[in-house]
Amino acid sequence: MKHQFWNKIPAGNGGAAGVVKPGRTDADFDDLKYKAAPLPTAQVDWNAPADPGPDANIQAIAEAVRTASAWVAPLRQQLGHVIVGQQNLVDRLLVGLVTNGHLLLEGVPGLAKTLAVKTLAAATQATFHRMQFTPDMLPADIIGTMIYNPRDGTFSAKHGPVFANLILADEINRAPAKVQSALLEAMQEHQVTLGDETYRLPDPFLVLATENPLEQEGTYPLPEAQVDRFMLKVLMDYPNRTEEIAILEAMATSEPDLKVQPVISVEDIIRARRVVNTIYVDEKVKHYIVDLVLVTRDPRPYKIDLNGYVQCGASPRATINLTLAARASAFLQGRGYVTPQDVKDLVFDVMRHRVTVSYEAEAENITSENIIQKIVEELSVP
To answer: Measured between alpha carbons, how far apart are the two ends of the chain, in Å?
Structure first.
């Protein structure tokens, strides 16, 4: 006796399901049987090289970094002939140099800020200008102005001191807001407009601005929106005893030896920047950077109690600059990838001027550095 089936069997041609009726023989199932899909017609090249994967790409980046960063050690050596101590300042100058970022220095006078920038310019064959900011300065004293020629009745552009590769803006908080804005606009746009003409600033263009933390009379503090344009804010401290003795031996003379040998050119710096942009940042490190910034805005999802001490958190510039600075740190150490330690080493310099504390925090003498320290200690590290 033949078995009868009440089943739905998929049609072999990809159409609708076929219905099997009772009383049919096995031969009636032939048109309902599964038919294999045809093989792809594309030919596979079995001799083609296999995908190298991310590890090979990182190795290629590391090799490019080793080649492009060969000048770092000689440059440090040349700077060490003149600059005693201040290793943190030298490192941050190099970070700004290879990332096209600007630095804001806070420290007492006499800590070799001007000498460091001037020596760096000499060792990199870059042009250097120093501007001493005063309350009576005008924007034209920085960016330049138009000069009238009575002979032919025309105006010609006279470029200001901002047209240089390395700029030292000494005591930037002593100039009025309009002068600060003129410099900060040049920093952001890398161009200056005189009359109806726009002039590009030289590349690389690095501004090192200084502030004196001791004197507050007769100063114009930079607004938070303008301070945010600086990539790093570096706090400088006095040298230790050993460094002070070395300074005495080298500088306690009427003719100190401040000569350095050029190590790299401006073109080498620009090429190094392109390599820095290719340094590998793992997804976990990217999320760690974003978390460090987001905690300053809303710490509740991270279960970090900041007691309402943060009035304004870090801006997206903190995320961008922290990633760039971490890549630069890896580059200066000859690595083709970023580690969480690179991020932790630079998080204070990137974020201390971007986190605004509340009045309650100021009353309890809590600074933005205390806030960042708490976040670094309690946030999990990948």
So the answer is: 70
